[in-house]
């Protein structure tokens, strides 16, 4: 799949799943939106959003690896600042591209 | 040689159940797990050291399509299932008054709905057999931060009774085990877990919290012929904590 197309598609799907999970209007789910402090997600919500994305694309997301990729030894504030909608889209896009390549 | 499927079988109580089943002579064990491949491999090694053949199968029981995929794999492994143990569980540890719809849905999907779907998919492969689901005291009592999971366990217990009624004529017994606080990874998910454990110990006449083996031994009993006259019951195994 074309990487640009994949990123656009992933952005659309990730935004929809976050909206449906958190009951947040889509316009508020910008790439810069922080999952925890802006969208009021809790840890169980991250699991839920991950499950929805996994099922949508038939992929597996290692949540621990995903969070570790934000950086080592982060404070809660640093984690919150870096864990944005845009980060999730960037993290998921290569997984989707690879899965589509295998299909 | 009998075959069993244990959902949530790679860790905690489910893993202890896998060991007990192998010790009880189950020959083929399908160990369902969510995503921890290392834990599943460790469970497989434990079971195979006890003489059974184990097949770890990853599947997220929150999704019906994945349950279908699990059973497609089960069909490749064994033509029949004699024992189903539902130990998979997941949920939000928070007050019900703050619970969000998606958190409710996730708890119900994994803890209750997946039990029903697994039983339904077992039936064509289970001419007779035993089903045991793991509940908890929160299914019948109010516990702090346990509302979502407690409600899902209450639904689970209702299904145990209904399914027992429906399936007894087919030679299938359906029962459950409700434990108190059990020493598993899940404890850490409770807010203020150390205090919770200390309070549970103080409130338990037996003087400690449960271990996975405490619960797995009850599951093994329910699966055994000694429990042949027990249908649709949820046995409480909690060191007496619910007495007070």
What does the secondary structure layout of this molecule look like, with pairings?
The complex is a heterodimer of chains A (103) and B (244).
Chain A: H1 3-22, H2 43-57, H3 63-68, H4 76-82, H5 85-102
Helix pairs in contact in A: 1-2, 1-5
Chain B: E1 3-7, H1 12-23, E2 28-33, H2 37-49, E3 53-58, H3 64-77, E4 83-86, H4 101-122, E5 129-136, H5 147-167, E6 172-179, H6 193-202, H7 212-223, E7 234-237
Parallel strand pairs in B: 1-2, 1-4, 2-3, 4-5, 5-6, 6-7
Helix pairs in contact in B: 1-2, 1-7, 3-4, 4-5
What attributes characterize this protein structure?
heterodimer, A: 103 residues, 0% strand, globular, B: 244 residues, alpha/beta, Rossmann fold
Summed up:
The complex is a heterodimer of chains A (103) and B (244). Chain A has 103 residues and is an all-alpha fold. Helices cover 64% and strands 0% of the residues of chain A.
How does this structure look, described?
The complex is a heterodimer of chains A (103) and B (244). With 103 residues, chain A is an all-alpha fold. Chain A has a single domain, classed as Orthogonal Bundle (Non-ribosomal Peptide Synthetase Peptidyl Carrier Protein, Chain A). Chain A is built from five helices and no strands. Chain B is of the alpha/beta class. Chain B has a single domain, classed as 3-Layer(aba) Sandwich (Rossmann fold), CATH 3.40.50. Helix content of chain B is 43%, strand content 17%. In chain B, strands 3-2-1-4-5-6-7 form a seven-stranded parallel sheet, sandwiched between helices. In chain B, α5 links the parallel β5 and β6. Chain B is globular and about 45 Å long. The mean pLDDT of chain B is 95.
């Amino acid at each position: 799949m074309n990487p640009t197309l994949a990123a656009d598609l992933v952005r659309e799907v990730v935004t929809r799943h976050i909206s449906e999970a958190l009951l947040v209007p889509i316009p508020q789910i910008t790439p810069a939106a922080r999952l925890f402090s802006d969208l009021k997600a809790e840890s169980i919500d991250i699991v839920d959003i991950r499950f929805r994305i996994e099922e949508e694309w038939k992929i597996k997301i290692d949540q621990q690896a995903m969070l570790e990729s934000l950086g080592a030894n982060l404070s809660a504030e640093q984690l919150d600042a870096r864990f944005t909608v845009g980060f999730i889209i960037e993290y998921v896009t290569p997984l989707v591209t690879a899965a589509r390549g295998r299909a | 040689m009998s075959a069993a499927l244990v959902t949530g079988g790679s860790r905690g109580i489910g893993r202890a159940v896998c060991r007990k089943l192998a010790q009880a002579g189950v020959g083929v064990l399908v160990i369902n797990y969510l995503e921890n491949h290392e834990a599943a491999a460790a469970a497989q090694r434990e079971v195979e050291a006890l003489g059974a053949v184990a097949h770890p199968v990853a599947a997220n029981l929150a999704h019906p399509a994945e349950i279908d995929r699990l059973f497609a794999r089960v069909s490749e492994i064994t033509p029949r299932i004699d024992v189903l143990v539902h130990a998979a569980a997941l949920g939000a540890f928070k007050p019900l008054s703050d619970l969000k719809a998606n958190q409710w849905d996730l708890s119900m999907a994994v803890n209750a709905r997946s039990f029903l779907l697994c039983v339904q998919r077992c039936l064509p492969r289970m001419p007779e057999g035993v089903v045991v689901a793991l509940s908890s005291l929160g299914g019948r009592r109010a516990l702090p931060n346990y509302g979502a999971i407690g409600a899902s366990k209450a639904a689970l217990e209702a299904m145990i009774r209904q399914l027992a009624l429906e399936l007894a004529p087919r030679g299938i017994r359906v029962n459950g085990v409700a434990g108190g606080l059990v020493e598993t990874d899940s404890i850490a998910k409770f807010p203020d877990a150390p205090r919770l454990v200390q309070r549970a110990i103080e409130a338990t006449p037996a003087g400690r919290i449960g271990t996975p083996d405490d619960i797995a031994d009850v599951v093994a009993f329910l699966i055994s012929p000694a429990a042949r006259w027990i249908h649709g019951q949820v046995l409480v195994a909690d060191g007496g904590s619910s007495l007070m």
